[in-house]
Amino acid sequence: MSIVVKFDNVHLSFGASPVLRGVSFEVHKGQVLVLIGRSGSGKSTALRCVDRLERINDGDITVCGRSISDPNLDLRALRQDVGIVFQSYNLFPHLTVEQNITLAPRWVKKLSKAAAREQARQVLCQVGLEDKMDAYPEQLSGGQQQRVAIARSLAMKPKVMLFDEVTSALDPELTAEVLKVVEDLARGGMTMLLVTHEMAFAARIADRIVFMHQGRVWEEGPRTLLSDPQTPELRTFVGSLH
Amino acid sequence: MFTNFSLIHVQVLLGGLVWTVVLSLISFFFGGIVGFGLALAGISKSRWVAKPIADYVALIQGSPVLVVMFVIYFGLPILGIEVGSLAAAGIALVLFSSSYLGTIWRACLESVPKTQWEAADCLALSYWQRMGFVVLPQAIRIATPPTVGFMVQIVKNTSLASVIGVVDVTYVGKQVNGATFQPFTTYLVIALLYFCLCYPLSVLSRRFERVYSVNRR
């Protein structure tokens, strides 16, 4: 299987404080890799490095064959291959759901208005919100906004999707509806890199689980990792959740 | 002998008011264009762009408009560059309004949440697509009340142009006062004329503030 995202000894510091201290792992095509760990363990930062929202200091990340530290990197091409969904949805509040979704396909991928609209309908169907085309974000619940954000990313037909604690701002009921969408995507064969605190969810959909601690990959393994932790840190972390 | 202040003087003053309006429009229009450039440069990630611009803006904001006008009107001819009074006043006022509009607009751009810029970046939008479709529509909403409010300052500051001989309403007022020697009446009428230009702008600014704080869309 081909490698879609490869972290190779990645280091990153914010000022004097090191956040990532030699992180290495790989995500293969069609795989779901879940990053877990305490707040501050560097997992969200690691995710943001893939889309080059943060610049790494040392090591390298390869995304769909591109090195993100290449000085001649075509950043916009990279970002067309990578879809990212944030904790705070980040929908554009002044645009309707349809406009949010069709903006990039129309102006970046140069789709016609009709084609972009048709595609918006498709991705909204996928997240179960086909009746919300003309709504504004503020008229939707948090869970619906997050599903629109997922649809907006899907419309760019990314080769890999990043999810950065996408349910952390939602109550349990809304969390369930968003996780269902994410799970459907995983079953559909999307390559995904997920940061989450939903351990039961991680254990259900992950092909690989990476436990990060103090800016390092502390433990890595298949989804059974959580029921059979090898290090005291992961044992404490899993234990603290029950 | 002096003549009494009468309707004919009001007509003459209205003639001067035309130039006050013209000067205001010039200041706002060109000041807006330059100010927009200053705002964009001000949010540049490159220190080599942002820092000199910030220094320049501080310099302009730290000098009286009248003195800048004198430098241009009296100073430039010494270097062999002749500048008419209207041009000199226009340039000084454009420098003034652009530096303030630049600051106001930069703050408005920066108050669009960083996550919105990131979301646009992550969708692979170009710089201008991100600006035009995502950031500016949200920034304009924030910028409208203070911008309209600042237009009041521009209108009032055009009166300084009378000092270097632009025949605006204040300049005409001095002549009317010379002919009638009724300063109280004359300048009250002039104040009223400025008020008639500025008050609608103030009302508009307050209305925008209300509208945009209720409806965030």
Labels describing this entry:
heterodimer, A: 242 residues, Rossmann fold, 2 domains, 35% helix, B: 217 residues, mainly alpha, flat
Can you give the helix content of chain A as a percent range? 25-40%
The largest pleated sheet of chain A is described as: 6 strands, mixed
According to DSSP, the number of beta strands of chain B is 0
Helix proportion of chain B:
over 70%
As for the CATH topology of the largest domain in chain A, it is Rossmann fold
CATH architecture of the largest domain in chain A: 3-Layer(aba) Sandwich
Low-confidence region ranges of chain A: none
Structural class of chain B: mainly alpha
Radius of gyration of chain B: 21 Å
Query: Biggest sheet of chain B, open or closed, and with what strands and sense?
Result: none
The number of domains of chain A is 2
Structure description:
The complex is a heterodimer of chains A (242) and B (217). Helices cover 35% and strands 26% of the residues of chain A. Chain A has 242 residues and is an alpha/beta fold. Chain A has a six-stranded mixed β-sheet, with helices on both faces. In chain A, a hairpin with a 2-residue loop joins strand 9 and strand 10. In chain A, helix 4 packs across helix 5 and helix 5 runs parallel beside helix 6. The radius of gyration of chain A is 18 Å and the shape is globular. The mean pLDDT of chain A is 94. Chain B has a single domain, classed as MetI-like (MetI-like fold, Orthogonal Bundle), CATH 1.10.3720.10. In chain B, helix 1 crosses helix 8, helix 4 crosses helix 6 and helix 7 packs antiparallel against helix 8. The mean pLDDT of chain B is 92. Chains A and B meet through helix 2, strand 6 and helix 3 of A and helix 5 and helix 6 of B.
Chart the SSEs and their pairings.
The complex is a heterodimer of chains A (242) and B (217).
Chain A (H helix, E strand, L loop, with lengths): L2 E12 L2 E12 L3 E5 L6 H8 L7 E6 L2 E2 L7 H7 E4 L11 H11 L5 H14 L15 H13 L5 E5 L7 H16 L3 E5 L3 H7 L2 E6 L2 E6 L10 H9 L2
Parallel strand pairs in A: 3-8, 3-9, 6-7, 7-8
Antiparallel strand pairs in A: 1-2, 1-4, 4-5, 9-10
Chain B lengths: L6 H36 L4 H15 L3 H11 L9 H26 L3 H9 L4 H31 L11 H12 L2 H32 L3
Helix pairs in contact in B: 1-4, 1-7, 1-8, 2-4, 3-4, 4-6, 5-6, 6-8, 7-8
